[in-house]
Structures are given as structure tokens and as C-alpha cells.
Design a protein that fits this description.
The structure is a single chain. The chain has 104 residues and is mainly alpha-helical. The chain has one domain (2-103). The protein has four helices and no strands. The protein has helices at residues 2-22, 29-49, 55-78, 84-103.
Length: 104
């Protein structure tokens, strides 16, 4: 269950990271509220997960999920570059997340 909570926390991290782009400097109320909601949910879920997982592993996996998800959403939603080198770096992050999960 802790790993599931951590995964959800990472997804909400993606939500608030992408949400920042849509807040337009926190001048748009609905995107700002949704972004702040995602921030709170992400940290609360991380806090629940670290009750049962090592903090270093949980934090690295949380940020890794957030990083990979945010990059992929940036490519898909915002037209960010999808070069081979960027995708290779994402693969390295995924490999690191998997390695941490396997060793925890």
C-alpha cells in the first residue's frame, strides 16, 4: 500500500508541476487552486508513504515519478522537445526508480 501511495503522490507532483504553467504566475484562480490542491495532496501522500518506506528511497522515487511524468506531459501538452537524448535521460531516471524499488 505504501508503494501505491507513493505512486499517487508522484502523479500529483506531475499535476502541480504542469499546473504551474497554467496558473500564469498565479493570476488565474482555477488553475492556481488546482495546482495548490495537487501540491498538498502530493506531500500528504508522500508523508503517509514514508511511514513505511525509507525516506531516501521514497523521496527519490517521488521526485523521479514527478520528473518523468512532468517531462512527458510537457512533451505531450506543451510541445516541449522530444529529442532522443531527452528520452534516453528519461529512461535512465526510470531505471534508477526501478533499481530503488527493487532494493527497498
Amino acid at each position: 500500500m505504501a508503494w501505491f501511495l507513493l505512486f499517487l503522490a508522484g502523479l500529483f507532483e506531475c499535476g502541480w508541476a504542469i499546473g504551474l504553467k497554467y496558473t500564469d504566475g498565479f493570476t488565474r484562480p482555477l488553475p492556481t487552486a488546482l495546482t495548490m490542491f495537487s501540491m498538498v495532496v502530493s506531500v500528504v501522500l508522500l508523508g503517509l508513504a514514508v511511514k513505511y518506506l525509507p525516506i531516501g528511497t521514497a523521496y527519490a522515487v517521488w521526485t523521479g515519478i514527478g520528473t518523468v511524468g512532468t517531462v512527458l506531459l510537457g512533451i505531450w501538452l506543451l510541445g516541449d522537445e522530444a529529442s532522443v537524448s531527452r528520452l534516453a535521460c528519461i529512461a535512465l531516471i526510470v531505471a534508477g526508480i526501478a533499481g530503488l524499488k527493487l532494493t527497498a
